[in-house]
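RETRY 2/3 - previous attempt timed out on the joint model. Re-submitting the same 556-residue input unchanged.
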Amino acid sequence: MARIIVVTSGKGGVGKTTSSASFSTGLAMRGHKTVVIDFDVGLRNLDLIMGCERRVVYDLINVINGEASLNQALIKDKHCDNLFILPASQTRDKDALSEDGVERVLHELINMGFEYIICDSPAGIEHGALMALTFADEALIVTNPEVSSVRDSDRILGIIQAKSRRAQSGSEPVKEHLLITRYSPKRVEADEMLSHEDVQEILRIPLIGIIPESESVLHASNQGNPAIHFKGTDVAEAYEDVVSRFLGQDVPLRFTQYEKPGFLQRIFGGK
Amino acid sequence: MADLTPVFAGSVFLSKMHGPAHAREVNPLSLSPMSKSLFQKPIEIKISTVVAVSAILATADRIALDAALNEMTGGSTDFFEDDLAVIDVAGLPADCTPIDWAGIISLLKKYRLNPVAVRNAPPHLAAEIAAHGLSLETAVKSREPEHAPQQEPAPVAAPAPAAAAAPAETNVMIIDTPVRAGQRIYARGCDLVVTAVVNNGAEIIADGSIHVYNTLNGRALAGASGNPNARIFALELSPELVSIAGVYRTFEDGFPAEFARKPAQIRLNGDRIDILSVNSATRAL
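RETRY 2/3 succeeded.
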């Protein structure tokens, strides 16, 4: 049974695309046939983060308009055989995303045997974001621990509860997961940042993971490799935990406590 | 979490809150079941309740009515937005016949009220009312004394709310899921009970009272169609704005400390919004 998962946030720059890339890679590395779709028509980024920008020939809009088949547009990931990328169009207008067209593409992907379809939503609450969430079965709400991001996540949750196909048809509601990114335990301790408990108290949805603030994310994007590939970094491990929890495993929360650099760390350096 | 700055994510203008006109903007979100019927019949007859404003006449004089309506709406043409209207003639003096029905109807239409029925009309007027295409409303009992001729949506509250003015409504709207930024819930003609959190940027509106068995952080507007006896209750209050019968209060300097983070109620006292302990033993501000 295929699941459609939207990765959304309302606010821009909180880590939707980074999270989409690592989450879909994590699912694929565990043997699940996964596709990740970039819904950010006009501002496509996912192909850059996934390092496949030079292989983009056709895109989502071409498929919706019948100018290319899905097989032509899907790009196989360079690391995982199970992972495919459906890029957004860089040149078209986002109004080209018709609801019928999106539904048709999603159905076709399900018929091709994909287990997980990850929809990387654009920022905002406009048409593109609506199209990304309309057909979702589950939602990863990406939130930074600061008030404006939390407010926007709250807004997008309301929209999911009102506008998604599941809400409109009165079937079982979209399953919501809170993913807190760019979390800095040190700044939380200094009261400069909301704690994950604070965020949860406002949003009131189950927490699926906390991704610590890290320089390795920027490094990963610049290299065109999803952060989850950087084994041994706390970001990669945090994304692995998210995937485990999503697949039903019980994994304890990590990277929420600030640890002062220990004696050895101070001697041998490191950040 | 009381330090969330009150930025209004949803937007209504306060000037629109005095009348029922804003009701049309309300997006009922997931409140009404949208599922399509499995069987499509050409016609289905079901009992349904429609909401209309009542236009309670104290005079049948067109010019006086025109002046009053003009003052009430402030000259705005979209105040009523084609709301259905029931003309209540209980308050008319017995000697003011003949009533200029055509004149009254066209006057109400001028203010974008859509008269559909007449309430409390004496039997001998039935024929002429029917001749003007209006229905006679007979099923409704006569109004309770404390609701006696009162200007429809009163923008400013009447003083000294009657002690035991229990409204006749038995309906209530209950919301069990968090009310989120940008969401707006309107309990039309009844009380609103919310058991989940009301977040900043959310707006809950009721024609009756509002009860929040959780934290109220957004905007709450009770007595939205002019009931000054409506109140707002919450287990924990940190609202952006509260309003009763169109009289509102914001909390730029934060919610009064002695009522923060504990159950409290908000009521209208004259034209002033008061915050009280929920069991009204203590009284302040």
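DSSP finds three helices and 15 strands in chain B. Closing ticket.
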